[in-house]
Amino acid sequence: MNTLQGQISNIQVNGSLALVSTRINPIDFTAIVIETPETADYLKIGNTIHVLFKETEVVIATETSKNISLQNQIPGTVTQLKKGTLLSRLTIDTMVGDIVSVITTNAIDQLNITEGTKVTAMIKTNEILLQQ
Amino acid sequence: MIDLSLHKGLHTAQGTMPLDIDITITKGQFVTLYGESGAGKTSILRMLAGLLSPDQGKIVVNESIWYDSTTKTNLKPQQRKVGFMFQDYALFPHMTVRKNLEYALSKNQDSGSIEELIQMVELGDLQHQKPSTLSGGQQQRVALARALVQQPEILLLDEPLSALDTKMRLKLQDYILKVHQQYNLTTILVSHNIGEIIKLSHQVHILEKGNIVKSGTPTEVLTSHKMSAKFRFTGEVIAIQQEEVVSIVTVLIGNNVVKIIAQESEIETLNIGDTVLVASKAFNPVIQKIV
Fold first, then answer.
1. Cα–Cα distance between A24 and A51 in angstroms, integer?
2. Is B42 helix (H, G, I), strand (E, B) or coil?
3. Is the bond leading into B218 cis (omega within 30 degrees of zero)?
4. CA-closest candidate to residue B144, choices B106, B192, B185
5. Each residue of B185-241: pLDDT tens digit?
6. Which one of A11, A17, A21, A52 would you mutate to disrupt binding with B, by most B Cβ within 10 Å of its Cβ?
7. Strand B64-68 with B256-262, pairing
């Protein structure tokens, strides 16, 4: 599990859903949750919170594109690559710390990723868990 | 219902520490006291058992007053319906298992219950052996049976399983749960083992320096994870298998076996038998109507 710590910077509520932005300098992570400030007391602007996401949910791109729906995009450099037959694990050094991604080895080969490659790690808003 | 109001200056290495406890325990509940050594957990059990007197306070068990400092009521330990089990089995070495249990009978008590207890904790084949020939887990089963000989209403367990290995501990936990339910006991456990607490107890009280600082269900209090995951279960790890760059952790949740992909760093501290929280966002699972 990738775990980052930041402060809640914005909360947009509609019904029982909330779109929560967490500032982890200099990036804002957005997460959609079935909680509101009324149901979860940790949802408060300024509150310190952990942003969690699984390694297997981190999408990797070698070129950034604006034509993509993924809201959380973190640029970085691959510092470690461990290749398996089907799956590979890469560690990416980013402005918010190390992010680990597990993607298929086919994808690694297709994108020509090696240690030192500049990539963008991307996570869907519904894949991000918030934890106090 | 057990009402505990206990106030006492406890002597510790750092001087006197005031213990101030006010709790109510519902009959039939399994309650755990959790906290650092010296927080006052064992003292609470001892005061309930009548082995230690509070300076002030009241102990009312199912409407009968066991202790009241204002009226100077103080029932003797043998008048309180309490069974006690410690980490140290404290069995008589020269007596057989059966004799150890019979010795715990009160005067004029029918010995018929001994046979039932022996069956309950499955000591039938070992009943004529001396404690020294038994394993730690078997001795602790004898100690558990002995704590129940006098048909207590309250079972007090002071870190009873901390000296046992994981496999043995899991087995003893099952016996404890079984007797708790079978005899309709109110059980108070002192334990440091999170998995054990989650498995056994309804309610946990966290003690710090003589005060209760947090109370609630084990998952509320111990996992402390105010987490946005809506798909959340506790289960027991039954297998961990390394596959390429990831590991597959098999977890038993109720009667269902599920598998979770985990990273090396996550399984470092994970052992078979551990209680774990399995969580996912509500957005991930798919739902399909059966039939």
1. 9
2. helix
3. no
4. B185
5. 999 999 988 778 888 999 999 999 999 999 998 877 876 567 778 888 888 899 999
6. A52
7. unpaired
